[in-house]
Amino acid sequence: MHIEDKTLFQLQAELIDTKVELAVNKAINQVVEQIMNLRHEVHKEMSGLRHEMHEMKQDMLERLSTLEKKVENRLSPVETALGMRNEVRGEIRTRFFDLTYKLGALVAVAALANIPFMLTQIHPLFQ
Fold first, then answer.
1. Tens digit of pLDDT for each residue in 43-92?
2. Backbone angles phi, psi at 112, to 5 degrees
3. 12-16 — which CB contacts under 8 Å span 24+ positions?
4. What is the residue-wise DSSP string for 34-69?
5. Could you give the CA distance from residue 28 to residue 32 in angstroms, rounded to a whole number?
6. How far apart are the C-alpha atoms of 27 and 38, rounded to whole Å?
């Protein structure tokens, strides 16, 4: 009877070991399945984020393009006005130099014209 008790005890121990192994394998399989599901969910969310970021990038590029066109449209008249002002300033500067040259020439001619008169006035003083 002792041998049978030992065998029965061994069979019960093996049965318990097998049940524990099956339970552990089942728990491991559930954890692996949860990890796989979580990995799939993370991949799905990352894909959604990438898509959303791409849409935001396109939206921002469109907005920047629109803003650039608005700034261009507003700057064009300003640049034109500044160009006209620079042209006017250049013309004024040219006219100023031209008139200054003419005035200098006029003063020089007047001075040269007065030299004979002044000589006639000074000449009697030296006699």
1. 999 999 999 999 999 999 999 999 888 888 877 777 777 778 778 888 88
2. -65, -35
3. none
4. HHHHHHHHHHHHHHHHHHHHHHHHHHHHHHHHHHHH
5. 6
6. 16
**Locus of tokens 């939206």:** 59
If you count them, how many residues does the chain have? Answer: 127
Q: Which two tokens stand for residue 51?
A: 């898509």
Q: Is residue 101 predicted with pLDDT exceeding 70? A: yes
Q: 3-state DSSP call for residue 127?
A: coil
The CA distance from 94 to 88, in Å, is: 10
How far is the C-alpha of 127 from the C-alpha of 125, rounded, in Å? Answer: 6
Q: What's the CA gap between 8 and 57, in Å, rounded?
A: 72
